[in-house]
From TrEMBL:
A GO term, aspect molecular function: dipeptide transmembrane transporter activity
Stated name of the protein: ABC transporter permease protein
GO cellular component, one term: plasma membrane
Compartments, record wording: Cell membrane
SUPFAM superfamilies: MetI-like
Family recorded in the similarity comment: Belongs to the binding-protein-dependent transport system permease family.
Length: 307
């Protein structure tokens, strides 16, 4: 068991190092942030001064070593735009994104998992077809398009919900529903597939033969054994909720880290972009790490295979 955990933690560390390194190289080689901030009309002396001030006049390797050293001490630099610490800026926006992501995940889980279970139990019937149609609809519809449709319907036509901003539960409804649609459709499809596979197992027929009530067989026999693929999809989509928030926050002017990332990229604020990429990567990697660890709890055979 100890080796199982150590292997997962080592893979997590390597993945984060790769993401940080890749983001650092791409951002440093995709253009001069000083010119982007000062403008094309800036004097050469001004450009040279700010390049030296921000350490951009050094070699790429020297900048990389300094950045890794700063990260090791919990320092992520200052914003090139307003000289404030990067983590201070990110932490100001993080609660809004966490609120949106948790609300979206709750909606997706409450809708997607029960819908997948019902579709599996009603396989081939009208209920199954309706659930799968809505699942494909949610899976395929782009977030930005759905968000605009919701704004047109509920804000402009019906005038019952605010089109942007934050502060109340009414502000949260449309962004959370938009962000949850993809995850709900994915959960419904994978839950249905997992349940269909489990329902055909011999132990389900044996439980029925022993007279175990139908819903008890579903909840205490079928669902736990279908948990691993469902947990996999949940873990993957937890990370994707943060990445998907970039589009949704832009559409609804939600003041989270997704919108901050769009602004930082447009302004070539390297320090902020690097910090945000790291936060998003940590979220996705931790979600997958939690899924891997849950595998070991749900199925002891996985733990044994890691020894």
């Amino acid at each position: 068991m100890t080796r199982f955990w150590l292997i997962k933690l080592l893979r997590t560390g390597i993945t984060l190092w790769f993401v940080v390194t890749f983001a650092f190289i791409v951002l440093r080689t995709s253009g001069d942030p000083v010119v982007a901030l000062l403008g094309a009309d800036a004097m050469p002396d001004e450009i040279a001064h700010f390049r030296e001030l921000w350490g951009l006049d050094r070699s790429l390797f020297s900048q990389y070593i300094s950045y890794i050293g700063q990260m090791a001490t919990g320092q992520f630099g200052n914003s090139l735009r307003d000289s404030r610490p990067v983590m201070t800026i990110i932490l100001e926006r993080l609660p809004a994104t966490a609120e949106l992501g948790l609300a979206a995940f709750a909606i997706a889980a409450i809708i997607g998992i029960p819908a997948g279970i019902v579709a599996a139990l009603r396989r081939g019937r009208l209920t199954d077809r309706i659930v799968m149609v809505f699942a494909v609809f949610g899976f395929a519809l782009p977030n930005f398009f759905l968000g605009i449709l919701l704004i047109l319907l509920f804000s402009l036509y019906l005038q019952v919900l605010p089109s942007s901003g934050t502060g109340t539960f009414r502000h949260l409804l449309m962004p959370a529903a938009t962000l949850a649609t993809f995850t709900a459709g994915t959960l419904a499809r994978f839950t249905r597939s997992a349940m269909l596979e489990v329902l055909e197992r011999p132990y389900m027929r044996a439980a029925a033969a022993r007279g175990v009530p139908f819903w008890q067989r579903v909840l205490f026999h079928a669902l736990p054994n279908a948990a691993i693929p469902i947990v996999t999809v949940i873990g993957l989509n937890l990370g994707q909720l943060v990445a998907g928030a970039i589009v949704v926050e832009s559409v609804f002017a939600w003041p989270g880290i997704g919108r901050l990332l769009v602004v930082a990229v447009s302004q070539r604020d390297l320090a902020v972009v690097q910090g945000l990429v790291l936060v998003i990567a940590v979220t996705m990697v931790l979600a997958n790490l939690i899924v891997d660890l849950l595998y070991g709890l749900l199925d002891p055979r996985i733990r044994e295979g890691a020894k």
